[in-house]
């Protein structure tokens, strides 16, 4: 983690009273760990029901545009983000702001470590423990044999077979069998036994949504299960609930 703090040290840092999140994924972390009174603002995406299943928790919170320059007047004592630029980190240091830029997680276990990290920083370690127990319960009850499946998002894009999404799918009892761009012709010629359709902004017209509505897809002989694409955007704080929902859908 990159860190810029008061005086450049994170040792024995006080519990922050005014926390800002600039990134959707850290918005979600903050929403499940911090007290509302601690949250000075989250990004506008974190408050949108189009972007995250956790938006209901953000009702009434102030929002920002995801830029460090736009929250300086909020006088945060902790700024959270992911993938911050060196320029932003340097600016935070010059302004005396404590800024933590988390790396994008690569596994469910790394998500759990990040949640626990943020929970500790905001003075609520019990929230991190709760999340860790959820992930541990999913791991303990994971089916011994994974069902081959193909998860597809807009434009027929399939996530990596080894990445974060695949890790969460494995906890649902699924094994992603292909990655990259998948042509409709390929699906027709060699349909997967199970097709997971990731729904993201289903009410918004776009080229990627048009692909998902192609009439040829209706002829694919595969069982279909819908996934909440909003949860998979970050693959973070909203995922335990989504994996439990997927398990129920698969068992139906």
- How much of the sequence lies in strands comes to 15-25%
Roughly what is the average pLDDT, rounded to an integer? Answer: 90
Count of DSSP-assigned helices: 9
Strand order of the largest sheet: 1-6-5-2-3-4
How would a textbook summarize the main sheet? 6 strands, mixed
Cα(first) to Cα(last) distance is 42 Å
Uncertain runs: 1-10
Radius of gyration: 20 Å
Q: Helix content range of the residues, please? A: 25-40%
Specify the oligomeric state.
single chain
Broad structural category? alpha/beta
> How many β-strands, per DSSP?
12
Element-level helix/strand string: EEHEEEHEHHEEHEEHEHEHH
Please write out the topology:
Elements: E1 2-4, E2 19-21, H1 24-33, E3 39-43, E4 63-64, E5 78-82, H2 86-95, E6 99-102, H3 108-121, H4 125-140, E7 147-152, E8 157-158, H5 164-171, E9 174-176, E10 180-181, H6 184-189, E11 194-199, H7 207-212, E12 223-228, H8 229-234, H9 239-251
Parallel strand pairs: 2-3, 2-5, 3-4, 5-6, 7-9, 7-11, 11-12
Antiparallel strand pairs: 1-6, 8-10
Describe it for me?
With about 250 residues, this protein is of the alpha/beta class. Helices cover about 35% and strands about 20% of the residues. The chain contains nine helices and twelve strands. The strands form three sheets. A six-stranded mixed β-sheet has the order 1-6-5-2-3-4, with helices on both faces. It has a four-stranded parallel β-sheet with strand order 9-7-11-12. Strands 8-10 form a two-stranded antiparallel ribbon. The N terminus is likely disordered.
């Amino acid at each position: 983690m990159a860190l810029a703090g008061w005086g450049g040290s994170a040792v024995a840092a006080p519990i922050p009273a005014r926390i800002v999140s600039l990134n959707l994924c850290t918005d979600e972390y903050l929403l499940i760990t911090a007290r509302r009174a601690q949250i000075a603002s989250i990004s506008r995406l974190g408050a949108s029901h189009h972007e995250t299943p956790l938006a209901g928790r953000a009702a009434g919170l102030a929002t920002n545009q995801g830029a460090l320059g736009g929250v300086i007047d909020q006088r945060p004592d902790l700024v959270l983000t992911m993938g911050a630029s060196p320029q932003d980190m340097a600016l935070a240091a010059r302004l005396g702001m404590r800024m933590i830029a988390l790396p994008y997680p690569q596994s469910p276990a790394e998500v759990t470590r990040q949640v626990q990290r943020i929970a500790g920083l905001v003075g609520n370690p019990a929230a991190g423990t709760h999340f860790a127990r959820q992930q541990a319960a999913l791991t303990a009850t994971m089916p011994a044999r994974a069902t081959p499946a193909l998860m597809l998002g807009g434009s027929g894009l399939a996530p990596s077979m080894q990445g974060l999404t695949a890790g969460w799918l494995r906890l649902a009892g699924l094994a992603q069998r292909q990655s990259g761009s998948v042509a409709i012709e390929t699906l027709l010629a060699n349909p997967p036994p199970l097709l997971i359709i990731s729904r993201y902004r289903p009410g918004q017209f776009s080229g990627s949504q048009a692909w998902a509505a192609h009439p040829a897809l209706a002829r694919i002989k595969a069982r279909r299960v819908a996934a909440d694409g909003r949860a998979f955007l970050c693959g973070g704080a909203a995922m335990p609930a989504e994996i439990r929902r997927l398990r129920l859908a698969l068992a139906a």
